[in-house]
Amino acid sequence: xxxxxxGITCDVHIYEKIKQMKLKxxxxxxxxxxxxxxxxxxxxxxxxxxxxxxxxLKVGKNLKSITKIMTQTYDVDHNTFERYYYDFLGMLxxxxxVTLDD
Amino acid sequence: xxxxPFERPVIKKVxxxxxxxxxxxxHHEPITEIDGVPVQxxxxxxxxxxxxxxxxxxxxxxxxxxxxxxSRYPNVLFSWSYKTNYLNAxxxxxxxxxxxxxxxxxxxxxxxxxxxxxxxxxxxxxxxxTRNDLLLxxxxxxxxxxxxxxxxxxxxxxxxxxxxxxxxAIRINMDIGIYPAWDRFGFNYENGEAWDALNRIMHCKxxxxxxxxxHIGTYxxxxxxxxxxxxxxxxxxxxxxRKYNHHILYIDMGGGFASKNTLKGGYYPGTDTTPSFDDYAxxxxxxxxxxxxxxxxxxxxxxxTGRALIDDAGYLAGxxxxxxxLADGQRASILDAGVNLLFTSFWYDHDIRPAKPMSDQTEExxxxxLFFMNIDVIRKxxxxxxxxxxxxxxxxxxxxxxxxxxxxxxxxxxxVVLIDMNSDVHVIRKEETVDTMNxxxxxxxxxxxx
Lengths: 102, 450
Ligand SMILES: Cc1ncc(COP(=O)(O)O)c(C=O)c1O
What we know:
The structure holds two protein chains of two kinds. Chain A is an alpha+beta fold. Chain A is 47% helix and 20% strand. In chain A, the strands form three sheets. Chain A has a three-stranded antiparallel β-sheet with strand order 4-5-6. In chain A, a hairpin with a 5-residue loop joins strand 1 (2-3) and strand 2. In chain A, helix 3 packs across helix 4 (78-94). In chain B, helix 3 (55-70) runs parallel beside helix 11, helix 6 (131-139) crosses helix 7 and helix 9 (224-244) packs parallel to helix 11 (277-290). Chain B folds into two domains: 33-53 and 312-434, Beta Barrel (Lyase, Ornithine Decarboxylase, Chain A, domain 1), CATH 2.40.37; 55-311, TIM Barrel. Chain B has helices at 22-25, 39-46, 55-70, 88-97, 106-114, 131-139, 149-160, 193-202, 224-244, 270-273, 277-290, 307-310, 402-405, 434-439, and strands at residues 11-13, 33-34, 37-38, 50-54, 76-81, 100-103, 122-124, 143-146, 167-173, 187-188, 208-214, 250-252, 300-303, 314-325, 331-335, 352-354, 362-369, 377-385, 392-396, 416-419, 425-429. In chain B, helix 6 (131-139) links the parallel strand 7 (122-124) and strand 8. Chain B is of the alpha/beta class. Chain A binds chain B through residues 28, 30, 32-36, 41-50, 53, 72-76, 80-81, 84-85, 87-88, 91-92, 95, 97, and chain B through 3-14, 20-21, 23-24, 26, 267-269, 271-273. Strand 6 of chain A pairs antiparallel with strand 1 (11-13) of chain B, so a sheet runs across the interface. The complex binds pyridoxal-5'-phosphate. Pyridoxal-5'-phosphate binds at residues 81, 84, 102, 125, 215, 218, 254-257, 304-308, 400 of chain B.
């Protein structure tokens, strides 16, 4: 935990962790926005932007290059994208679709 | 450059109790035309329901499969599996592309001959060839794939009285690690039966052993079993070369590649799970190329791929007859095409699409055929757009096995059309009429009047 000047605490640790997160290798991802996790039998649907991010994660891209690609293609600035990116990865983490190891 | 609008990335778990594949089908992209021809106009012109084939899809699929193998192996041949679809126009499309014919009965054999396939380009498989079938096949120098010892001895008998030396192969069954094992057909590899048969043939001067055949099953969802099978086939072929200095001309790996349909109860859609032709080709060819064949004795690789070559090219279009609520409140749509025409609905969760643009509104629906028989359900529960009476629909990927296993039950079988490469439409099998059916019947004189 670090303390910001204006007194808000923020768990930097989580953000650092999310940065190192890798997509589970075993996931089956369809081009139609369908994700299947064979280790749990759970299925997920994902919208086109989410799908694109997952596909970039799958090929091992990090936050920096994903942000670059997405901000070039979509009408979104870096900060906004990053905010939703973390939000999205938080969801993936909660669904246990990303891991810290490979 | 105009940037695309950004939408927040979201992922949703497909909720418990609802089969996962619904996740994929929420959009129900309508299929309004096939190869540029509007589905509704086809129904108007040729009646509803209607089977529709795309010549373009057949040829493209064939080329893709052929390329997968021929880019890895010097000597490849496909032999069209008649039982998968023996409509003559379909068979001939494959023959034009270079396929031989693979048949399993006297009926199919004669169909291939009538289509103009040369006798020596017909592979005759199956456990039930009659003596007359065998005599004809021997005379035509067809490739006879022996299924059991009774057939082997009958052929030896025939060959001794014949001017022709029958060209034979044996069908081999084997353990490839999948269940159920297909051991009803052919000679077993593991228990030595295959070698017994091969020895018997090699000691018979009047038979010519040309090849080895296996067919490990159908809808094999992984390429791995083909490696096992190719290893065992190579082992037998190399054994023959060592023992008898006899080099077989071909190894026939049969059919069995999965199509992109989704099996009933399948967790996720066939479009995601089905191995590609490249995957299957890599599995088989990697084994053959590593085996110790001398370069000038590398056997021809024959494939009898059925389902995977034709499923995508066939569509069944039809019309919604009515919508109902069942007693428990569930919605049911009644269609004018049912399991009598769509035999494969026993195995597949078929992908049913509206044939005109619809809203994204859906409802869980049971889909029935016109006649309420309890078994006559195409999809028990599916998320389906809100189709009204009279709306057209299309079921995709129905090209394999439906036009050979369809039943004439209560109604008659409908027209089958082919859309050619120029988007011109041809009837390739006429709809049956009452006369078609009555032609075959005879009422004894004393039963004519009442
Ligand atoms: C001997 C033989 N060859 C080929 C096939 C075609 O199989 P598939 O449609 O699975 O490719 C079959 C089908 O059962 C078969 O029995």
